[in-house]
Structure formats: C-alpha cells, structure tokens
Amino acid sequence: MNSELKEEFLTIYRENIHREGAEKLLDYMLKSDFFTAPASTRFHGSYEGGLLEHSLNVYHCLKDYLARDRAKNVYNMNYSEESIALCALLHDVCKMNFYKTDYRNAKNEMGVWEKVPYYTIEDNLPYGHGEKSVYIISGFMRLTREEAFAIRYHMGFSGIEDKNNIGKAFEMFPLAFALSVADMEASYYLESKGK
Q: Most buried of 47, 66, 157, 172 (most Cβ within 10 A)?
C-alpha cells in the first residue's frame, strides 16, 4: 500500500467531511481492506491499493470538472467541498471486503508452470454496486438526496441499470453526471490495467 496516498486520502477526508458519523465511517474503513484492496479484478486498478488510488483520482477529476466555468456558471454546479469529497472518496466503498486473492496455474516467461495470484469476487452483501455504497455510507451518516443519487448512479450508462433511470437521475441531479464523468476519466485515462 502506498502510505502517501493513504495520508492524502485521510487528509482530504478529515479536512472536508465533518457531518455526524464521518469519523465512525472512517474508523470502519481503516479496519477494512479499503486502503489495500484493488479497484477491480482485471480492469482499472486491478492491483493492491487500486481502490485507494481510484478514489483519489475520482476526487481530483471531479474537482477539476466542477472548477470549469461552464460547470459553475452555465450548469450551476456549485457543491460544497464536503459533498465533493464525500461523493468522490466514498463512491466505491462497496468494494471494501469484496475482493479476495486466489491462485491459478500459469506459465512464466521460461515456460514453467507456476501458481500466480489473481483477484476474485467474494460478495457477502449482494446489494448491487452504487446502491451498496449508499447503503454502507447511510449506516454511518446522512447523505443529501443529490449525494445519494450521485453515488448510486456513478457508473453512468456503463452499468446494467435501466437507461431511462440513469438519464432521469442525471437530469435531476447534475452531481450524478459530474461524478460519472470523473469516474470514467479516472478509470479509462489515469489508471492502467495493472502496475
């Protein structure tokens, strides 16, 4: 795990998220594998600490997106630092305690078979993706309606949800669209398949 990234996450979280229950949620996260877990099994962030790195990348992408003049002045996307940090840093808490390491046989560069580790999914709370993050966060602190919808629909049109619901959520809650854009930017442009 990259201790610098963990410190950056903790600093952003503690400086910005102050509502009741925030410290209890952070304590829960510190006792989980959040800071060492991958972000996926094979795609973006599929390495130790990938979830932490992805969460920070989404935070920085969301900050940049919302800092645009058009986002602020034309689309009226003006959100508190707390809402921005909360949505970006916590959108994927559903991936805590979600992945496990298993082993399979593969040939190395010498052509010799060996056991190599890979990530698999062990979902002990099969409650979807974005909605599971909302559920976990809500067990510790209240979310605004816009924050809840942003986290719920952060996968945008790449998820398996009803496309009409996604479009309606983006129309009603612009933060949902902005978080989705930030998530895609981080996943496709900042994070490699493996490190």
A: 66
Residues recorded for the chain: 195
Reported as half-sphere exposure (CB side, CA atoms, 13 A), residue 12 has a value of 22
Q: Are 166 and 157 in contact (CB under 8 A)?
A: yes
54 in Cβ contact with 34 (< 8 Å)? no
The pLDDT of residue 32: 96
Query: Mean pLDDT per segment of 10 residues, for the chain of length 195 residues?
Result: 91 98 98 93 84 97 97 95 98 92 89 87 85 97 98 85 87 97 94 58
Residue 159's pLDDT is: 67
- CB contact set of 187 (below 8 Å; sequence gap of 6+): 39, 43, 44, 45, 54
Q: What is the rounded CA–CA span in Å between residue 83 and residue 16? A: 8
Farthest CA pair distance, the chain:
60
Element (H, E) at 140: none
Q: Could you give the CA distance from residue 181 to residue 186 in angstroms, rounded to a whole number? A: 9
* C-alpha–C-alpha distance, residues 172 and 36, integer Å: 35
Residues 6+ apart with CB under 8 A from 78: 72
